[in-house]
Amino acid sequence: MTTKSLTAPAIFGTGFKYLILALLGAWMLLPFFWVFSASLMTSAEVTRQPPPLLASAPQWHNYADVMKAVPLLRAYINSLLVSTLQVAGSLFLSSLCGFGFAKYEFPGRDLLFMLVLGTMMIPFFVTLIPMFYIVKQFGWLNNYAGLIIPGLVSAYNIFMMRQFIVSIPDELLDAARIDGASEFRIFWQIVLPHTGPALATLGTFNFVGAWNAFLWPLLVVQSRSLFTVPLALNSLRTYGMEAQFQHLQMAGTAISVVPAVIIFLALQRYFVRGIALTGLKG
User: Fold this and answer.
1) How far does CA 78 lie from the centroid of its chain?
2) 220-249 residue pLDDT tens
3) How far apart are CA 245 and CA 203, in angstroms?
4) Residue 25 and which of 45, 108, 140, 185 are 20 to 30 A apart at CA?
């Protein structure tokens, strides 16, 4: 009797916590479920008020129709290329900068690091016009360089990599220097392998951000052959005729979330660990 009386409240409390978590998880997944459901509806069902939760008769041809209506396959390739190159370049440069701030002593280091952090407080729209002007002067409008290069540097990425790298023992790096390793070799073969969780976390954030980017590609790209997925789906909008294509937009949206979901599921273990450990670094 004593054992049951002691464990019953604990079992009830644990079950209640899992119930709350399940309900919250279902609530967060509801928009994804409705997007998939709406992708199988007719245009009349999507625009109905209130909208139905399920399609009365699944319209699987919506996926083929959206591929015909806009160059979605080409946009998919463009988004994959831009997102992959931007993430790879950003992780490399951010890791390199974080390594410098964490492990090198030089005059003005702390002030420079504070200035880098200070740029996080500047809204994107404040720098939008100057960045567009710079890109135009370099001749990067309407090409891949204009889509990729401006997103290669991020103050948040530098901060996060610095937080991880500062915890790597200096003795480990000094031992490598004694063995004759160059500074770049120390960075590449010793520092980077220890920052896997941080790289996975930033890679997930950056990929999703680059994949979903809309405003910047809209400004620098005019050719349909360079459209990313958000631009291709936006091209379905025609003044006065938006309702006719909303079901196709939903079908395209359902297709577009697949890469981001795959990236998150593949890196979930490292992503969670990176979020948990970043705040513990000094």
Assistant:
1) 16
2) 998 889 999 999 888 877 544 455 678 888
3) 33
4) 45
> Are residues 252 and 232 in contact, defined by beta-carbon separation less than 8 angstroms?
yes
- 145 phi-psi bin (left φ>0, alpha ψ -120 to 50, beta other): alpha
pTM for the complete prediction? 0.82
Domain ranges of the chain: 61-278
The answer on pLDDT for 22 being more than 80 is yes
- Mutual angle of helices 196-212 and 72-103, in 10-degree steps: 140
> What is the C-alpha to C-alpha distance for residues 236 and 248, in angstroms, rounded to an integer?
8
In this predicted structure, the answer to whether residue 2 has a pLDDT above a threshold of 60 is no
229 neighbors 211 (Cβ within 8 angstroms): yes
161 in Cβ contact with 99 (< 8 Å):
yes
Give the CATH number of domain 61-278; options: 3.30.2000.30, 3.40.50.1370, 1.10.3720.10, 1.20.1250.20. Answer: 1.10.3720.10
